[in-house]
Amino acid sequence: MSETASLVWIGAAGMVAAVLQLRRAWGLPRRSAMQNGIGWTLMLAGAALALAGDGAWGLAVASLFGMASAAMLLAHAGWTAPASKARASDRKAHMLPQPGEPLALGRRLLTFLLTVPLACAAALLASLGARAAAGMAGWSDADGNAMALLLLPLLWGILAFWLLMLPRRRTQWVCLAVPAVAGLGLVFIGGAV
After folding, report:
1. Most buried of the four, 73, 106, 148, 154, by CB within 10 Å?
2. 19-23 contacts: CB < 8 A, separation 24 or more?
3. pLDDT along the chain (193 residues), means of 10
């Protein structure tokens, strides 16, 4: 087995470990930023190792292992979950406020805008910045394009998750601005080189 193939297998194992860690973290009685951070760090480390091992192909192979393990965990949870006879309250499901509470539609709309179109735009800029950095590092166009296409949904999901975990709007805006500005800067630097 070549050294690059072993990096792909280690990356795939990292992806599986990340999924297991995230499942464990999300099953805790209280949110733990550290436990979630460990899971996402494992995911990024696995992706980086697989990418270093065999480029976009290695990342795709390792991602399949992560997605397959997530699908198995979801299937197991769905199969073993007891059927609920009670309807969840609107308050618990966060669908509607309780009677007498304001709808807060502006706040809800802003949360949607931050986590969907704006997080997608920030993830796109970060992915294009990574593509530009790959081009400056001498990667082939095919590998750079594939990496950017794979990074976009991954970064978008991470950003959306992170934005929903942050309690203040100011920190949410900063969380969006950092990857967007960094990616845009790399695009301009890559275009100038």
Report:
1. 148
2. 19/43, 19/66, 19/69, 19/70, 19/73, 20/69, 20/73, 23/70, 23/73
3. 82 96 92 92 95 91 95 92 70 62 84 95 96 94 93 94 92 95 93 71
Statement to judge: residues 186 and 118 lie in one domain: yes
Task: Output the pTM of the full model.
Answer: 0.57
Domain limits at 170? 105-193
Q: Are residues 3 and 70 in the same domain?
A: yes
Residue bearing tokens 């059927």: 83
Determine, yes or no, domain membership for 1.
yes
pLDDT at res. 31: 87
